[in-house]
Amino acid sequence: RKEVEQDPGPFNVPEGATVAFNCTYSNSASQSFFWYRQDCRKEPKLLMSVYSSGNEDGRFTAQLNRASQYISLLIRDSKLSDSATYLCVVTGGTSYGKLTFGQGTILTVHP
Amino acid sequence: DGGITQSPKYLFRKEGQNVTLSCEQNLNHDAMYWYRQDPGQGLRLIYYSQIVNDFQKGDIAEGYSVSREKKESFPLTVTSAQKNPTAFYLCASSIYGTPVDFGEGSWLTVV
């Protein structure tokens, strides 16, 4: 089993749609969780951290369920500019600061 | 401005050659990482370093070598032992528990 697994995608949605991505992780000792966004042929950039209580940043909402070892990202009112690959990232546990990335989910928002 | 600088951005390697990718950061981060990304794939960890003069193998270290003589620098050498080196290479740095910052990446192609 992979350490971090994401929905395979790709997701193709119209503008204005709500879309959700899921991610599961296998190491119960994992401590920090993030969502990164990666545009084509560019480096990943931090989208948001994920907290146990859930957190929201504008149209984006992240949730963490430690009991189920599950992370989600919800995007409301999708924009064309949201088209990108979304990477689930998990860190901590037994290796200091080591980040483990999911394979990414491709999102395409069309007019 | 603070950040991570990778060079070169594009590099061509002949079979049997060693090449070195540079990574410099002025963020005063303790931890530095090298990741490899293949088309349509997530990021895979090659090597990481928590402090100067110390580094650990990641998931795909075979055919690669690194050094950490200075806090700011973490160069990656792709040796001739790496049989399939064509990929996008990303350097990153972080303070433990905080999100990772990435350089813009280096594209390596074997010709």
Key structural traits:
heterodimer, A: mainly beta, five-stranded antiparallel β-sheet, 0% helix, B: 111 residues, mainly beta, 11 strands, globular
Explain this structure.
The complex is a heterodimer of chains A (111) and B (111). Chain A has 111 residues and is mainly β. Chain A contains no helices and eleven strands. In chain A, strands 2, 4, 5, 9, 10 and 11 form a six-stranded mixed beta sheet that branches. Chain A has a five-stranded antiparallel beta sheet with strand order 1-3-8-7-6, with no helix packed on it. In chain A, a hairpin with a 2-residue loop joins strand 6 and strand 7 (60-65). Chain B is mostly beta strands. Helices cover 0% and strands 50% of the residues of chain B. Chain B is built from no helices and eleven strands. In chain B, the strands form two sheets. In chain B, strands 2, 4, 5, 6, 9, 10 and 11 form a seven-stranded mixed beta sheet that branches. The model of chain B has no long low-confidence stretch (mean pLDDT 91). Classes of the chains: A mainly beta (111), B mainly beta (111). At the A-B interface, strand 4, strand 5, strand 9 and strand 10 of A face strand 4, strand 5 and strand 9 of B.
SSE topology:
The complex is a heterodimer of chains A (111) and B (111).
Chain A: E1 4-6, E2 11-14, E3 19-25, E4 30-38, E5 45-50, E6 55-57, E7 60-65, E8 70-75, E9 84-92, E10 99-101, E11 105-110
Parallel strand pairs in A: 2-11
Antiparallel strand pairs in A: 1-3, 3-8, 4-5, 4-9, 6-7, 7-8, 9-10, 9-11
Chain B: E1 4-7, E2 10-13, E3 19-25, E4 31-37, E5 43-51, E6 54-57, E7 64-66, E8 76-78, E9 87-94, E10 101-102, E11 106-110
Parallel strand pairs in B: 2-11
Antiparallel strand pairs in B: 1-3, 3-8, 4-5, 4-9, 5-6, 7-8, 9-10, 9-11
